[in-house]
Write a structure and sequence with these properties.
The protein is an alpha/beta fold. It contains two helices and six strands, in the order H-E-H-E-E-E-E-E. A five-stranded mixed barrel has the order 2-3-4-6-5. A hairpin with a 6-residue loop joins strand 2 and strand 3. The protein starts with a helix and ends with a strand.
């Protein structure tokens, strides 16, 4: 009887521990999409961090381009990735990559909305 009770306590603590670990992992790996205006409020806050920015493609002709929101622009360097075929000027995309406070993002991935 005592062993059954002890086993249930250990199992309960194991479940609580596993849920806690999963929650912490999800919190630290969750990066919300940032609007360009949010980045412009304090670019140094995101310096040397991997971020996800949502905006409109401008100046794309097969290579680097600007990601825009109104008059705000972030330069997107795509030299280290393959740009999806459906990227074109005027569409909204999410760009993930390493940000430099000089408004430069070295892209690691580009997500295009499915039509």
């Amino acid at each position: 009887m005592l062993n059954v009770r002890r086993s249930r306590i250990v199992a309960g603590l194991g479940i609580i521990g596993a849920v806690s670990i999963i929650t912490v992992i999800l919190i630290f790996n969750f990066r919300p999409y940032l609007q360009i205006s949010q980045v412009f409020e304090d670019p140094s806050r995101y310096h040397n961090q991997e971020i996800q920015v949502i905006g409109i493609v401008e100046g794309y002709s097969g290579g680097n381009f600007n990601l825009t929101q109104g008059n705000d622009k972030i330069f997107i360097d795509v030299s280290d990735i393959t740009v999806p075929d459906d990227v074109e000027n005027g569409i909204q995309v999410v760009v993930m990559g390493w940000f430099n406070q000089l408004l430069y993002l070295n892209a690691t991935q580009i997500l295009v909305q499915c039509s």
